[in-house]
Amino acid sequence: MAQRTGTRHVNRSSKYGKGARAKQQRKNFRKERWENDMKELETLKKRYEDIDSASISKFTDFPLSKKTRDGLLEAGYDVPTEIQRETIGVSLKGHDVLGAAKTGSGKTLAFLLPVIECLYQNRWTAIDGLGALIISPTRELAYQTFEVLCKIGKHHDFSAGLIIGGKDLQEEADKIHRTNIIICTPGRLLQHMDETSYFDCCNLLML
């Protein structure tokens, strides 16, 4: 009986010891990842001013974060289209862009990549709230944009939401204040602005 009690005590201490070590390992991992991210951010920023659209032949030629590059690779994006070559670099430098191109030319990816990179550069997290608001004229286009965003941004920690008519308004309202990127239709956006009291755009970086 005493031996069994002693064994239990040893096991309990061992368990707590493992828990403490695991907690410290997670802490060290987060710190190392943060330091690596900061180094990458500094390197990327220095390359922004050297972007030359004429020299871009692949997406890897752009100064993009590893998380974004991995998302592009897994989604099968390799060679940028003309509008992507001409606009992504300008957007990464922080300039506003007005672009026009035919359907299927890659406009969606052309503006989504800078959105993701801008939030990454600003170390955006869930507590920062809404950072990018993308308004689409139709539900179909909004859904298409959301799908592309999920593919190329899958390795980032941002949260994204699709806010369109035909879905439960309260369910959207419960999550909207924790969403970093919102893709929406105009009517649904106005409805939330009128009816969702905690819908906050004060920290918005991109529209």
Q: SSE order, as H and E?
A: HHHHEHEHEH
Identify the quaternary structure here: single chain
Largest sheet: spatial strand order:
1-3-2
CATH 2nd-level architecture = 3-Layer(aba) Sandwich
Low-confidence stretches: 1-16
Structural class: mainly alpha
Q: Quick one: CATH class?
A: Alpha Beta
- Give the radius of gyration: 22 Å
Proportion of helical residues = 55-70%
CATH topology category name: Rossmann fold
Could you give the distance between the termini? 69 Å
Query: What is the total number of structural domains?
Result: 1
Portion of residues in beta strands equals 5-15%
Shape, per Cα inertia axes: globular
Count the DSSP helices. 7
**Which superfamily, in CATH terms, is the homologous superfamily?**
P-loop containing nucleotide triphosphate hydrolases
Q: What does the largest sheet look like?
A: 3 strands, parallel
- What is the strand tally? 3
Motif (Q motif): 57-85
Protein name: ATP-dependent RNA helicase
Family: Belongs to the DEAD box helicase family.
Pfam families: DEAD
Question: Quick recap of the structure?
Answer:
The chain has 207 residues and is mostly helical.
Description:
Helices cover 56% and strands 6% of the residues. It has 207 residues and is mainly α. It has a single domain (38-195), classed as P-loop containing nucleotide triphosphate hydrolases (Rossmann fold, 3-Layer(aba) Sandwich), CATH 3.40.50.300. A three-stranded parallel beta sheet has the order 1-3-2, with helices on both faces. Helix 3 (82-92) runs parallel beside helix 4 and helix 4 crosses helix 5 (139-152). The protein starts with a helix and ends in a 12-residue tail after the last helix. Mean pLDDT is 84; it is low at 1-16. It holds the Pfam family DEAD. Residues 88-207 form the Helicase ATP-binding domain. A motif (Q motif) lies at residues 57-85.
